[in-house]
Amino acid sequence: MNRRSLFAALAASAVALPAADNKPVKVAGGWRIGNVYYSSGLTGVRPEARKDPLAFGGDIKEQTRRTMEQHKKNLESLGSSLENVIKVTVFLADVKTEKNAMNEAYAEFFPKNPPARSAFGVEFPDVATRVEIELVAWVP
Fold first, then answer.
1. What is the CATH number of domain 3-138?
2. CB count, 10 Å around CB of 30?
3. Minimal CA–CA distance to 137: which of 63, 87, 68?
């Protein structure tokens, strides 16, 4: 299903679903409302690295891959996939120097017809986090 068809199906389902099906439900890594999944922002940082950046041992590409793998698992647990992602928001610790490397890793997960995306530079509360990614996806 291409993105245009996905948007049409999304619009149709919002009208066709009974009100009870549109109630927000907490699911793996976010919330589902009807056939739409809204993820929480995820990072690829190992928990031990939050206090000790040397414990991470990875770069922006590794964090991006780890983050996207977790999103992939969450979507699959709902019966969906990365192919059904409609919108992605990326937050980067250093957008000037790390955006290109993040894009290389990110493109591995969306080799064709990538979803709409926004990217912003932010300051994270811990020095180990280089990227955070959240997404919106269609859940058939």
1. 3.30.1330.40
2. 20
3. 87
